[in-house]
## 1
Amino acid sequence: MKNKNIKRAFVLALSTVMLINLTPVKAKADIVNISAFDEPLDVEEYEFLDASDSTVAFAKALDEMYEVSREYVKKLSKEEKKSEFSSLRVIVKTNGSEIDIEGLSPAMVVKGTRDRYVLLFKTVEETRKALEKINEMEAVLWAEMDDAVAASSEESSKDKGEESSKDKGEESSNDKGEESSKDKGEEKSEEKSEEELLEEYLEYLGRVDRGSEKVKEALEAYNGHFSWGVVSLKVDELIEKAKIYDTKVVVALLDSGVSEHESLEGRLTDNGYDFVNDDDDPKDDVGHGTFMASVIADCTKGLNNIKIMPVKVLNEYNEGHYTDQILGIEYAAENGADVINFSILLQKDEVNKAYNDAIDYAVNEKGVTFVTVSGNYNSNTANFRPSDKENVIVTANIDSNIERNRSSNYGKTVDVSAPGTNVLGACYLGGYWEKTGTSVSAPHITALAAMLKVINPKLTPAQVEQRIKDSCTDLGEKGWDEYYGYGLPDAGKIEITEAKSVVLNTYKKGIKVGNTLKLSATVLPIICNQSVTWKSSNKKVATVKNGIVTAKKAGTAVITATTKNGKTVKCKVTVYKNSK
């Protein structure tokens, strides 16, 4: 009970929450932290904002809309607030043609990038009717409600045997506009200073300093790294290969922002963006993003040409409007990201088409490799987004025993497994702490993808994904399975570049019947890590398996070694009769 009181007091005092595992919830439309208008709005004619110039302009215009929508939402009844139309906002994508906006009677309209509009209505019924009309328009490719989502992190209230107010469908005191118990002077911890509360809270969460035994032991055990996952994935082998290249690669981290930390020195870009507060200071308010950034940096240690672009799309409660996340994806793709790490999850029925559209734009049009989580709910990935998609790398969570964490989601879209249980990383308030979840697994895979792009910038997202999967050590059932995917990647075995040629290393080409001959081939460049397949033109004369030629009868046979991308080398083998 004492620990819970400490945590509660700290949250109330500093208005910041470090949630290690949030369940996706359908957040209410008025969760955005904005100032309410002094007087109720009475809009007779709709306001039109043209924000089609840039993703940032679109985001800022939507924030203006959210201020207005907040006032309308306040007027809704309790029953109306439960409606699927309660946000009163509809997001629409057209084929480029104009749509009849006036006929829909909106209160406000924002025209955004890539032929999209967001329309605000005054009532639930107006919103419902408008969405029906919009979906009947020929120029409309898709339309759906604009809402809010939560991050996928670890240790959910469900795991703790507790339910959050949102899980119960209740409003928090802040949602209701009521005073907190701290404001009323009911908390004994009110007598403590913020510094004291902070220290107690950090102790409660298990934060340790760089000089602690815990950190020292980790650095010694994991070859100078913080994460045990570096050893399990054999990351150092890939780091050594990537060191000879100076290609700049940008990893966009869509999360709660990133705070300054010693482990991230020299690793952050200067073009990050905060879509929550609409400014260029994506500072972390909860710690989720800073931790994920530190895992990426830890797994690419010494590769300062791999930079991390913080794109803040989650607030201090690990929640945010899904339009912010959609625009965050597009911002990253348009501002130099080669890889996106997306440790965020939402219920599939909350949003569909807008998320698909943004991710497909980044992957298919901009060539960005997209790494995401399977989720931490021991449920099927088909029920969540974007873990249900095929063109992203979906990552499951394993522990240090290389076994599936029981909370890790499963399903046909799971691609690989990665360390995500009790991993040590950066605390956004200084020092280090451990976290668990698929959110932690994903940045390990993101690091592998980034190093592949350093070595071979021309790799497509599909090629990056396939090479990571091809390197996997099988886990669980033989072959691919829905819990582990293809298994645990082996960074040392990843095929990092295509073969340019293949040469034979054996000079003896004659063999007697009944004997064997060992052929070996080298694929160039050596760094590509490719093997070859062998084939005999005449199996009656000689067979070949793994380079071992077995002589069957007198004659000749052509032995061919072929790389995965079709490079070949051939040699003629002559089989002689045994002399009696």
## 2
Amino acid sequence: MFSYVEFCLWDAMDDSSNFQRNFSTGEVEVVGSAIYHKTEYRERRDHYAVFWANTPVTSFDTARDAFCGVYGGPAEPEAVKAGRCSNSIAHGWAPVGAHHFHLTLEAGETRTILFGLGYIENPVDEKFTAPGVINKTRAEAMMARYATDAQVDEARRALADHWDKLLSTLQLHSGDEKLDRMVNLWHQYQCMVTFNMSRSASYYESGIGRGMGFRDSCQDLLGFVHMIPERARGRILDIAATQFEDGSAYHQYQPLTKKGNRDVGTGFNDDPLWLIAGTAAYLRETGDWSILDESVAFDNDVSKAQPLMEHLRRSFRFTRTHLGPHGLPLIGRADWNDCLNLNCFSEHPGESFQITGPSEGPVAESVFIAGMFVKYGSEYADLCDHRSLPEEAAEARAAIAEVEQAALTAGWDGAWFRRAYDAFGQPIGSKECDEGQIFIEPQGMCVMAGIGKTTGQAEQALRSVEERLDTRYGVVLLQPAYTTYRLNLGEISSYPPGYKENAGIFCHNNPWISCAETVLGHGDRAFEVYKKTCPAYIEDISEIHRTEPYVYSQMVAGIDAPTFGEAKNSWLTGTAAWTFFNVSQYILGVQPTLDGLKIDPCIPHTLPGFTVTRRYRGAVYHIRVENPDAVQKGVKRVTVNGAPIPGNVLPIAKAGETVEVTVVMG
């Protein structure tokens, strides 16, 4: 039996480029069945890795060429063909860890070998036990914790218990096995992964340079905050510290230093409003108003620190003071769609689509940000109300009303909301355009914000989505796809038709359409949209979809693509948070508010009811929803512990209490 790992040299960019140095730095130590990787530990690093087994080793290798062969590789290693390793010690080149065990088993006999891969940090004054010999005390303690089958089994049980506790915050029983499986397990699990990793490192992201996105991380909170609110709190404060004093923000920041990426900088004008969205979600979940009083730096400069409430105020003010000729918010370098670059004019290969040229102009406007401003600006006004700031709340709502009116007029194209205006004042996402006549983003966000709900424009916009953007695998981002590169649009037109932002099925904003349908009471349509990209419901097309059948992908090839229905970029995507947010709060209708849980389902008429167990602010709510009249939306009555209550917002129970809730739709 053989084992094998390749060790990184601690710096992904340097590892893959600075070979003249790093082919000479690799160092290891071997003690028994433990292989210690200690490259650069002799100088500035205080950490090393250890790869071990709990069984005496027959032979080992720590040099890749020795194990794989000079012309070989892991698929057919020379050591495996030879039947043993050569006990090589790496001196530079490529350090690896490989064990060889010669085993003889009788018929029916079973043996277990435990392998572990660990990371150790030592205090600087405890790095060595002798000259050149690393201090292994902490590594030995780690290996001792996982030395037997029983210890590993217990650790795995503890891990399972940990996940059971996290996932038990919300559990659904609907009678639909696929829906229950997604809501109870995979939606929430993927939300945890995206919260931890953002978009920084996966099969599709190298982990180099990009770090954490300001917008991405704020949206990830929407699907995560109910599981570990205290970690969400810390993330909000970290994100806010990368904001500038004018309310704008670094578009990305590094999770280790928690400082903004200066190479990308600022100018993505939707970013500030996402901070309001994430903070408001935290407050609805926890009722922890103290977070607004936390002192938070601007641009990580503590001398400029202000309470978080002031950060939100400046987020709101930034959008309010950056309006264009039509009274719509300026787009800057881009909004949510990083590939819609209306101010950048990238003409030559190698030029950034986002930061080439003027990049932040006074003309190009975003109807999508207008929808955001109405939605999240209203949430900011609600926070002002709860902070006893009625004048500020009224002022905010007046500014929101002006932008809403601009969206209904300058932002309306006759049958749907326009996407934007370019740097020359020409409409994008309009019937006046030869391509890219209708986009998904403003239809979802504007209707979620309630824009056009009373005028009929919201209904018309969603009809246009169904007629012009919907496909059997999901709603595409735009139609018709761009067939040529447009200098005034940027990266969006650089992709072949049907891929990514150029008319791909962007799974991230499909939930916006589902959410929007619930705003109008369309439970059947909302659930239909939800199911089209939901992994559990498309298992029968796995040979087309081609990514894991339990997690969401960023993108599915659109109807214009030769590979229509094929997914890409699974796991790390804002789709995770938005789909869980959609199904739990908009479809099932279990909605945290500033004043308690609101129950407002919008479900397919064929669903006779469901039960949800929801842990909320320390209490446990057992919620039974009944749908005797087969309606899609509407609450007829609510009882709490057997007593009827007015409305559908549940009184906040004391921590530790269990509350029995019955909701009858009608």
